[in-house]
Each structure stands twice: as C-alpha cells, then as structure tokens.
Amino acid sequence: MCLEDIYVTPDFRGKHVGSMLIKSVAKEAVENGCHKMDFVVLNWNPAQEFYKRLGAVDATVKYQGHCFRFSEEDLKKIASDCE
C-alpha cells in the first residue's frame, strides 16, 4: 500500500488523531492483503519522529533507496515519445 498524504491540523495534534488515522490505514492494508506500506516524508517534516515511534523505518537509510517521481508534465512528454 502506498500512503499518499496524511495531515493533522494543529488544533488536533497531541490528541492521538494521527495514531488513530495510521491504525485505520494499517487495518485496511492488512484486511486487503498488503505486506507493507510505503510513504514519503519530506526532510523538514517533524512527523518523521511520529512515524518512527510507531515503528516505521527510514527506507532511504536502511535500504539505501531513493524515491523518484515523474510529474504530470514529464509523463505527457514521455508518453508522446511512445510509438
């Protein structure tokens, strides 16, 4: 499963809302036969510590992989080169 975005507004932080959201997503993943959940956290985002407390591993460090992305514009350019 790939988690695209999750955001808890400042008014709800510290009230376990983030934990409840992650638990719900994890439950959905398990129920649908997912074996892992990948997500990207930007370097500046303090939520990294939240995810680590829940047991998430920084895959960039552990697996030495990098996340790549094609933008919509890139996809259109690449697709236009397809014969």
UniProtKB/TrEMBL annotation:
Q: Which UniProt keywords apply?
A: Acyltransferase, Transferase
Record keyword Acyltransferase present? yes
GO terms for molecular function, please? N-acetyltransferase activity
Residue ranges constituting the N-acetyltransferase domain according to the UniProt record: 1-83
Pfam annotation, one family = Acetyltransf_1
- Could you tell me which PROSITE patterns the record lists for this protein? GNAT
What InterPro entries has UniProt attached to this entry? Acyl_CoA_acyltransferase (IPR016181), Diverse_Substrate_AcTransf (IPR051016), GNAT_dom (IPR000182)
User: What family is reported?
Assistant: Belongs to the acetyltransferase family.
Question: Would you tell me the protein name for this molecule?
Answer: Diamine acetyltransferase 2-like
Q: Which organism is the protein's source?
A: Temnothorax curvispinosus
Q: Which gene encodes it?
A: LOC112458668
